[in-house]
Amino acid sequence: SNEYKSYLRMNTEPPPSLAFYTVLSPLLTRFTPEQARPLREAFVFAEKQNPGFIHDFIAGVIQNEDMTEMLLRLGSTECTEYLIGPSVEYHTDLNEKAQILRGLLSGIPDQIAERSMFLQTIKDIAQSIKDLLNSVNGYYNANSNNPLVAQNKRLFDHQKKNFVRCSKAFSDSLRNYFKDNQPSIVFLSANKLITQTNVLMRTIKIISEKG
């Protein structure tokens, strides 16, 4: 079925890991294609078998306690893997809304210490999440006649629910932060929300492709 084909494609592409795209992938470009290919395949396999492996591996190599914060700062880096092409209706709105959310989340480390600024950022993030969900729903309504989209509704709904779940987890991390004043849990939760945003965008990109 088309849904099964989409599932297979989702599981043979690089993982939606911030550490992979912002740190590891640029490093692999320093090798020849022949040298880089087996390394890339090994890391992709390890990440899919054990999500978070690449993050932990890089953190161990560079021994940086602020690895989560570093990745969050890099989280707004645009990647073609998650850019939806012009053949898809709503593509411009989806790409823009997703990038706005990534940008707001990746700016948290610079704003979290200033309470009034951070409170405004929280409001902006909440609105951005709503805007992206509205765009996602608009996309589905506009493309529901596309057989590929209709046949992959279950996959689409699953990733949308995961996005909502990550959004709620982010809200929970904020409540915890205002209790114990530990920013690390907010950084980690924001990273997960960026990652799930990327997963959702990549899912839409894959199930919308023609042919």
Architecture overview:
The longest helix is centred in the middle third of the chain and has 29 residues. The chain has 211 residues and is mainly alpha-helical. It has eleven helices and no strands.
Condensed summary:
The protein has 211 residues and is mainly alpha-helical.
Coarse shape: globular
The poorly predicted ranges are 1-12
Range of helix content: over 70%
What is the SS-derived class? Answer: mainly alpha
The ordered string of helix (H) and strand (E) elements is HHHHHHHHHHH
Gap between N and C termini: 13 Å
Count of separate DSSP helical elements: 11
Radius of gyration: 18 Å
Counting DSSP E segments of at least 2 residues, the number of strands comes to 0
Largest sheet: none
Question: What are the SSEs and their pairings?
Answer:
Layout: H1 2-10, H2 18-28, H3 33-49, H4 53-62, H5 67-73, H6 91-106, H7 108-111, H8 115-143, H9 147-151, H10 153-180, H11 184-208
Helix pairs in contact: 1-11, 5-11, 6-8, 6-11, 10-11
